[in-house]
Amino acid sequence: MRLFVGLDLPEHVRAALGDLVAHLKSECPKARWVRPEGMHITLKFIGEADSGKLDPIRAALETVHSTDPVEVNLRGVGFFPNERRPRAAWCGVEASPNLAPLATCIERALEPLGFPAEARQFVPHLTLARSNSPDGLEKLPSAVSNLKTQEFGAFRASEFHLFQSFLKPSGSEYKRVATFPFVTTEDESGPEKSTTETAKEDS
Asked: Which of 2.30.300.10, 3.90.1140.10, 3.40.190.10, 3.40.250.10 is the CATH number of 2-201?
């Protein structure tokens, strides 16, 4: 199983990002554009895991809590590794200070199960497009020069999700495996789990 932990997006944010992608696709048709239904903010990429580890992973994630929800604002468009040689386009994520500690808690909870923490600092972002070709995204920096401070919506998250990723020729498909409310309250007896339909992303 190929797994990761992430935040889902509300529909009004997906709609705004969907409009953005539709607007930019014509500039770079060779790039692999993410479908709105597959967009998410990754908190921890777990990678390949034996199905026998699914229950221990769930149990570990149930221990992750925060005193407050995470406030998220999506703003601007940028590139990895840079604008001169773009291989991926992303939407910037501005979040409340408790998002990074939440991601760190998730990593620490999963480390005893054999999933090491990332060496790189956690930098939240939302991928819009990828390309392995030098000319795949070359026109995009100039096309989005007026979008560096554009806002695409804000939301409050009080739960994160465990997703399973399926790699297919048509693009990756994501299935929500479990949901974990992470804001602690006096009446909270434990996180609920749910599954949802599969979402697709070109990648």
From this structure: 3.90.1140.10
For the chain, the domains span 2-201
List the catalytic residue out of 12, 40, 65, 161.
Answer: 40
Let me know if 12 is a catalytic residue: no
| Span 23-54, pLDDT tens digits | 888 888 888 898 888 899 999 999 999 989 99
Instruction: Please identify every stretch of the chain with a pLDDT value under 50, giving residue numbers as ranges.
Output: 186-203
Q: Name the active-site residue from 12, 65, 125, 161.
A: 125
State yes or no: is 40 an active-site residue. yes
Determine the Cα–Cα distance for residues 63 and 76; give it in Å rounded to an integer: 34
